[in-house]
Structure formats: structure tokens, C-alpha cells
Amino acid sequence: MNLSVYIFGSFSKGYSQYPDDYSSAIFQSFAAGAKATTQIAIRRDGNLMYYGYIRQLEQGKYIGFCVVLNGLYLTQVNDLFTLFEQEIFTLVAEGLLIHFNERGEIETNVERLYLNQDEAAPVTQSLRAGFAKLESQCEPLPTVNYGISKDSRQDFTTSDDQTQIVQSSYTHGYTYVYKGDGYNTARLNSYKGVLAKSYKEKKELKTQYDILRKQHEKTLKEKKQFKKVLILTFIVVLCIAGGAFLFANLNDTKGRLSRANGTIREKNTLISKKDDSLSTMKDNVSTLESYTEVLRNDKEELSQKLYEICSFAPFVVKECTVTSTSFNFDYYAVEEKEVTVTLKAINERNSEVVSNSHTLTFYKGGGTKSLPFLYQLSTSQYYYVVLMVDGNIVAGKRW
User: CA geometry: angle at 95 spanning 90 and 96, to 5°?
Assistant: First the structure.
């Protein structure tokens, strides 16, 4: 399958692509026509078909992928969303080129892709492997219809008729398929929700902290002003007092001082309460930051555990079914690898074992496999069917 793979986008230092060649004008025209958070952009240029994907990021940035086929076109366009969206999840989960910020938004700190070739190269390899699985959906490219402008454009959504979308892809110069929602995987939405909730709680605590700080500053100012008023009042009372009324006025002054001291004590108590509240808010902010760090560590630990699981078994069976002639299953793998598996069917009644081995290639990201039994099982008997790798059972079912 003759194809080329590109990564492109608007990053912190402007537009960049990997590998860098003459195709940049086509990719930038894809971005200019983007209207949704995600979209497939298709360009026919003679005998070449450009299948592009653009994902909008924060702050006006975007990242895109493009696979170029020579002499072939795809008969199913919507399947590309699944392939590209899974690649977006992998990049975010591993922090390659793009990542989540503290608000749960996807952003990038990449300046130029040629400075990040170690991260970009595995992405192109993954997309190349993913497109290889779609080879059965490819057909020879019809001749160019010169009655239609090479720069003509057709817009669709994922709910539109697939036949019309495919026909437009090889007939018109540009074809766009927009997807307004459902573009995140379930795990990506889960990560995003946790971070967004954490950021919201942190922001609310910061707001409460600012309110209490202002109230505290106001209380301190009132306390200083009250002391000044108290001193002035005392001086005035001393000046007025005199002569025969000195003793009576002194008693009156003592009463006022007593009441003033009571007010001061109340103010001091209020200040103490505000200080306690402020300290509590600071503790809450610290706790939230610690919780955020725990979440980040949990994410790294989950990724490590996934790789550890896959080191024990090079793939994980997600679902399996059994017929009288074959064992069928869906799997997930973190890397492409050739593995020899053993398929056994054990007769429940007489313990007869039907066993054979298969050497298969498991692709990164997952797929579906169907393994035939050595011979057809009896539909009137019950069997325990197991799939084994290196003597370890990785899947099984009673049939």
C-alpha cells in the first residue's frame, strides 16, 4: 500500500509540519476550511488522495494528521474519525506533542515539529499501521473529472450519506466532513472531567480566600481607626473635666473606657475568627494542590501498569465469541508484535482436547482476530475453550 504520513499544525511558534516538504500549502488550506472542533478534510490532486484530520486546541492552536494515498481512495470515510481520535487520546495520555492543562483543556508547548522528531516519528508509524488495516476498504482511483474545478468544495457532516461523501472525495477538489460532538474517547472525557472539576474547586477556594483576605484587611483598618477615636475621646474628656466635676467626670471616663475595651475585645475576637477562616482556606488550597498531584501520579501509575500487564501478556482480550469452527476475539495491544498463541477446546464430557497453534501479528491499539479450530466442534457437546500465550491463559469461554 503506497502511502505517506504527515503531522502538521499551529504550535507555539506558528505553523509547522513533519516531514517538511511542498505539501504545506494543502495542509494550511485544510486548516483554513475547518469549522468544527474536529473534521476530516480530503483533497484530490491528480492521482493523489490527501486524507487529513484537524483537531482544534486552545488559544487558536490546532494539530492535524494527513495520510496520502497514491492511486487509491477509501470507500468508508467515517472510519477515519475512530483512527485519528484514538491517536489523539494516545498523544494526550502519554504527553506527546499535546497534553491536558489544569483546566482539562488540550494544549501544546511544542515550538517546531522538527525539534520534536523523537515524539513525531512514532505517531507517523502508528498512523501508517492503522491505515494498513483499512487496505480492504480501498479501491482504484477513477480518472479525474475535468468538468469539475480542481478547487471545488463540498461540505458534509458525519450524519450525511456515506456514498455521497465518498463520491465527492474523488470528484471534487476539497471535501470536508465535520463532527461537532462525540470526538473524545470515554477515557479522554474521564481525564478531562477530573481535571476540570479540580480546577473549578481550586478557583472557588481562591475566590473565597480573596474575599476573606479583603475582609481581614478591612477589619485591621477599622481597628486602627477605632484606637485613634478612642484616644481623641479620652483627651477631650480630660480637657472638659475640671474643678468640682473632676471626680464625677473621671468615673464617667472609666465607664467609657470599660465599654471601649469590651468593643476592642469583640473586634479582636472577630479578627481571630477571620484569621482562623483564612488559615483554613489556605489549608484547603494546599489539600487541593496535593490532590491534583495525586491524580497526576495515579495517571502515570495507570499508564505504567498497562505497560506491565502487556509485558506479561502482549495483548489483552476485550471480548470473545465461539462457534463450532472458530474462536473470535477483540483485543488491545500497546505495540505491534508477532505472537504465537495456542487454542484449545476441551470436551466437558470425555475430556477430549482439540488443540492447535497460530502465529499472529497484533497491532498497536487493537483489532479483531478469528482462529479456526483443528476441526469442527460438535454442537451437541459442551466445551471449555481457552486461548493461551506461553502457557498462560489469556481468554476463555464455555461453549
Answer: 75
CA angle 331, 336, 341 (to 5 degrees): 55
pLDDT number for residue 274: 87
Q: Which residue has the higher pLDDT, 303 or 368?
A: 368
The sign of the dihedral angle between the CA atoms of 161, 165, 167, 172 is positive
- The alpha carbon of residue 95 and the mean position of all alpha carbons in its chain are separated, in whole angstroms, by 10
Answer whether residue 380 shows pLDDT above 50.
Answer: yes
Record the cell numbers describing residue 134, joined without a space: 483499512
The span from the CA of 267 to the CA of 23, in Å, is 72
pLDDT in tens, 93-144: 998 899 888 887 888 888 888 888 889 999 999 999 999 999 999 999 999 9
Nearest to 10 by CA among 62, 52, 51: 62
Element at 2 (helix H, strand E): none
- Cα separation, 311 vs 307, in Å, equals 6
Sequence-separated (6 or more) residues with CB below 8 Å from residue 176: 33, 34, 35, 39, 40, 41, 42, 153, 154, 155, 156
Could you tell me how far CA 287 lies from the centroid of its own chain? 24
The whole-angstrom separation of Cα 320 and Cα 329 is 4
Q: What is the mean pLDDT of residues 22-27?
A: 95
Q: Which residues, 6 or more positions from 56, have their beta carbon under 8 angstroms from its beta carbon?
A: 34, 36, 37, 38, 62
The predicted-structure confidence for 201-247, as pLDDT tens digits, reads as follows 555 656 675 776 877 788 788 788 878 857 765 532 141 244 454 24
User: What letter does residue 363 receive in the DSSP assignment?
Assistant: P
State pTM to two decimals: 0.49
Q: Using DSSP, state whether 151 is helix, strand or coil.
A: coil
* H helical segments located in 49-144: 79-94, 117-132
